[in-house]
User: What shape does this take?
Amino acid sequence: MTFSSRLALGVTAGVLFATLFALPQALPAQEHVVSSADLQKDVAKAAQVRQERIAKIDKFLSTDQARAALKTANVDYDVVRNGVSTLSDDELARLSARADQAQKDFAAGALTNEQITYIIIALAAAVIVLIAVH
Assistant: This one.
């Protein structure tokens, strides 16, 4: 390789490296696909849904019938109530759906007092088990 070939190769390599390092700085900043305002709205919505689910389970467990069922099963209401807020979003969604369905079935007369008592105890046991696993 002659001196002029090496010089041309060196100059070409130098231009290539300079271009690669300068190019990202020369390009305008790109916007993200999702804006921070949209992300904040999504986070706020998720927090709202979570609070609604916690409230739904709390309402279900705070009824006189639920408290009596928990007392019969020697389950501390406060432990279950406090444990609900520590559940994951998926666990909370499942338990909330079950509590909601049980209330609807009971109101429609599809469940007896004994069946609703078993459901309450099962929900409370699920909360306790999920708390223990975490």
User: Anything to note?
Assistant: Residues 40-133 form one domain. The chain has six helices and no strands. The first helix runs from residue 3 to 26. The chain has one domain: 40-133.
